[in-house]
Specification:
It contains 16 helices and ten strands. By secondary structure, it is an alpha+beta fold. A hairpin with a 7-residue loop joins strand 2 and strand 3. Helix 1 packs parallel to helix 4 and helix 3 packs antiparallel against helix 13. It starts with 17 loop residues before the first helix and ends in a 12-residue tail after the last helix.
Length: 573
């Protein structure tokens, strides 16, 4: 009696676990998003710090001039402001780290606990000391740098000049004045507004940059939401038309396969059945280090494939030809492998644990199609014969039905009772799974949008407050000259609204670029995000920034009312 052959034993690490791999992919996606957004927040925060400290130094011009005349050095004078900035920066960093390191991880972890069994743990949550110190140090460092630049610009002036209030900049002709037909039709107040906008170029630059940064963050958040949900809307319907997948086991007989196919074709609820061979393989190329796990689809009839899947170019939506010699790669698969039409891709068989085996077989890529879920390669029968000379059994059925829930239940029950049928899955279940996964990412996007909105409100409040403080004498003079309350509002706030609108438009352009960068950074190998920001996202991002502007304008009206006309007597001639 022959000895029994010992069973094969495989030792798998956590990377071979589908759950661990999915969680790792989601973690990497969040890590990529987290590596982009803080940079923009830091830049906007640095702008706010520079604006605030510049205003603080301007208010102390006479004090700085007096100290400098008394012999105090640059370091001693700057030390006062640096100490103030350091104290404010350290307090803000400590509060931010202590609060947000507990709130944000809890939100993200709670969201992911919907699809992963993640223990939430108790408070306080663990904090990565290195990241906390790095973030806090960078925030404080940017604040100190902005303060040093603001103080240094004033200390370059002589004590006699510093002891005098800064003389307002003289008005100059602007480019718009040379457009005679337009300039002649503008009212006096609008002419003054346009001149003032370009008269104070630093205020123009800071306001536009600050608003642009905030609106860009908002558009990036909404655009990321669009791109994530376009995975479902773009994949299921426009590209994938079948709604049921029936898989037969490798040991199924030909009669069992034909019985399952006949059952489906004979049903009045079924409109189309495409039979194909599905192989899980590894793909490689000259420009790709290692191999990529792919699903190879070989239809029994090349002409039938278009009834189940639309192969088209993503940008032009032109249909891609598919015949028995075709090798069409999903766009994300082609990008990862670094191949295009005319290039060669090598397909390898894989063992039970997903490792590439053998020398593989090279095929020439004939097309790259739009696809958002999975790394897929569609191969014609003749092209497949170069990989495997044996005749495929075509053990997968893509079925298009009337999408009746009652039929789903009955068909699944009947098919599973048939011999040879191993799996029956429905696209609705796949969509539901992706919706649950993407809803988690959606929660993170909401956090980013709320954070960007709060930052936009802070920037607008800070810049508007400084704008009014710098023009106290001008506002008082307007009141002395008889400007009514509403005319003063229009004179000051019209500039703020116009600058916010300009910054908002610039932010739309920056947001498109930033969103594209974030999308490329946040994608994982298995999916391709959408590449189009919806018009509604542009409209909402623009409108939110302008709403914040109007709210800040309303909040600042009492400050204008409190300006005393006596202040105009202190004007510098």
């Amino acid at each position: 009696m022959d000895a029994l052959e010992a069973p094969k034993v495989y030792v798998l690490d956590h990377t071979q676990s589908e759950g661990c791999a999915a969680y790792q992919a989601d973690s990497e996606r969040m890590d990529h998003i987290a590596s982009v957004f803080p940079l923009v927040f830091f830049l906007v925060a640095a702008l706010v710090a520079l604006t605030t400290m510049t205003r603080m130094v301007e208010d102390d011009r006479q004090l700085i001039g007096t100290l400098k005349a008394l012999g105090y050095g640059t370091g001693a004078i700057a030390g006062k402001y640096l100490a103030y900035a350091a104290l404010a920066g350290v307090v803000g960093a400590v509060v931010g780290i202590a609060l947000l390191c507990q709130v944000l991880p809890l939100i993200v972890t709670s969201a992911y606990s919907v699809i992963y069994p993640i223990p939430l743990g108790g408070f306080p949550l663990p904090v990565d000391l290195g990241i906390a110190l790095g973030a806090g140090g960078l925030g404080v460092g940017l604040t100190l740098l902005a303060t040093w630049l603001a103080v240094l610009s004033s200390l370059r002036e002589t004590p006699a000049t510093l002891m005098l209030p800064r003389v307002p900049k003289p008005g100059k002709r602007i480019l718009l004045e040379h457009v005679a037909p337009l300039w002649s039709r503008m009212s006096f107040s609008w002419k003054v507004t346009c001149r003032n906008i370009f008269r104070y170029k630093r205020r123009l630059f800071m306001t536009v940059v600050g608003i642009a940064g905030c609106s860009a963050l908002l558009l990036t958040g909404f655009g990321l939401h669009d791109s994530i949900w376009d995975i479902i809307d773009g994949q299921f319907g426009p590209i994938v038309h079948y709604d049921t997948t029936v898989g037969l086991s490798d040991d199924a007989t030909d009669n069992q396969v034909l019985a399952a196919e006949s059952y489906l074709r004979d049903s009045d609820q079924v409109t189309n059945v495409v039979r194909l061979q599905t192989e899980n393989m590894q793909a490689g190329s000259r420009d790709y280090d290692g191999t990529l796990r792919v699903s190879v689809e070989v239809p029994r009839s090349s002409s039938d494939l278009s009834s189940a899947v639309t192969l088209r170019d993503r940008q032009t939506h032109d249909q891609l030809p598919f015949d028995d010699q075709s090798v069409v790669l999903a766009e994300k698969t082609a990008r990862l492998l670094g191949v295009g039409v005319g290039d060669r891709v090598r397909l390898y068989a894989q063992d039970e644990i997903g490792n590439a085996t053998g020398d593989g077989c090279e095929l020439t890529v004939t097309g790259v199609c739009e696809n958002y879920v999975g790394n897929v390669i569609y191969v014609g029968r003749k092209a497949w014969s170069q990989v495997d000379s044996s005749t495929p059994r075509f053990l997968t059925l893509w079925v298009t039905t009337s999408e009746s829930q009652d039929f789903y239940s009955q068909a699944a029950s009947d098919l599973r009772q048939m011999g040879g049928v191993s799996t029956v899955s429905f696209v609705d279940q796949t969509i539901q799974m992706y919706e649950e996964t993407l809803s988690v990412v959606n929660m993170v996007v909401v956090v980013l949008i709320v954070s960007a909105a709060l930052l936009a409100a802070i920037v607008l409040f800070n810049l508007t407050n400084i704008n009014i403080s710098e023009r106290i004498r001008e506002i008082a003079s307007l009141k002395v000259l008889g400007f009514t309350r509403h005319e003063v509002y229009a004179y000051i706030f019209r500039e703020v609204i116009l600058l916010a609108a300009i910054g908002d438009l610039v932010g739309m352009v920056l947001g498109v670029l930033l969103e594209g960068f974030v999308i490329n950074a946040a994608e994982v190998d298995y999916v391709m995000f959408g590449r189009v920001i919806h018009p509604a996202s542009f409209a909402i991002s623009f409108a939110l920034t302008m709403v914040f502007t109007l709210v800040i304008v309303l909040m600042m009206r009492p400050k204008l009312d409190r300006v005393s006309m006596v202040e105009s007597l202190k004007s510098v001639d």
